[in-house]
Amino acid sequence: MAVNFNNYRQVLQQLEPYHARLVAVSKTKPVEDIRELYAAGQRIFGENYVQEMVEKAGLLPQDIQWHFIGHLQTNKVKYIAPFVSMIHGVDSLKLLAEISKQSLKHNRVTDCLLQVHIATEETKFGLSETEVFQLLDQAGELPGVRITGLMGMASNTDDEAQVRREFAGLKALRDTIREKYFPGAGTFRELSTGMSGDYKLALEEGSTLVRIGSLLFGARNYA
Ligand SMILES: *Cc1c(COP(=O)(O)O)cnc(C)c1O
Fold first, then answer.
1. How many other β-carbons are positioned within 10 Å of the β-carbon of residue 216?
2. What are the pLDDT digits (tens) for 134-148?
């Protein structure tokens, strides 16, 4: 337990020249840890289990911005729609439509990122580039959501060049989408890339939101 404030300060220093923001990933960690980091000024926290995020949000200050970074099931959107600030892992039109519907019930508009599969490892999460364009073509009017960018997780490898290529590819995709679907408005700008092990590379490749857990809160114990 206990927050690593040295690492916290170092991460903030790294982010500053890039004007990127920190999502402090507090999954599996107790609310006391979140309170400690909150007292140091941190306001954005990331969780990836719905029930855990709902419970923590009920116990902690109202001005925390909760980012949902996990895989979200459509039938669970209603639990987080009243308060969630951003949903990073949107990977289907069905999910996006449900977020819009549930957000409107609370007179809210929820910021959403589309998750793109950029790593070499097989996973069932994340859209291909083709699927991203299909989703955007079919989305139509969804007044309860604002699609503000892309999220991706790089390969789990020591090959820096590989990781860099994956982040750079996502940035290029972001730029292409912005030109085609969001001309002028400039609202589609977020790139949620980088975790404890690769956030410096992510920043160099255009990250606007880094999602960092273990560097701040220590290793997670899932036992
Ligand atoms: C857990 C998690 C993180 C944080 O990982 P660390 O390696 O602990 O920094 C970032 N993004 C997602 C989607 C996660 O699930």
1. 22
2. 999 999 899 999 999
Mean pLDDT of all residues belonging to the chain: 95
Q: Cα separation of 43 and 60, whole Å?
A: 11
> Is the backbone of residue 28 left (phi > 0), alpha (psi -120 to 50) or beta?
left
**CA of residue 202 to ligand 1 center, whole Å:** 13
User: How far is ligand 1, taken at its centre, from the CA of residue 146, in Å?
Assistant: 23
Distance CA 3, CA 41 (A): 13
- How many residues belong to the chain? 223
Give the closest residue (by CA) to ligand 1 atom 6: 213
For residue 168, what is the enclosing H or E element?
helix 160-181
In the chain, what are the domains?
Answer: 5-214 (3.20.20.10)
Token reading at 187? 């609202």
With 60 as the cut, is the pLDDT of residue 223 above it? Answer: no
* pLDDT, mean of residues 24-36: 97
Closest residue by Cα to atom 10, ligand 1, is: 211
Identify the residue whose C-alpha is closest to ligand 1 atom 11.
211
Residue 185 predicted with pLDDT over 80 = no
| Amino acid residing at 113 | L
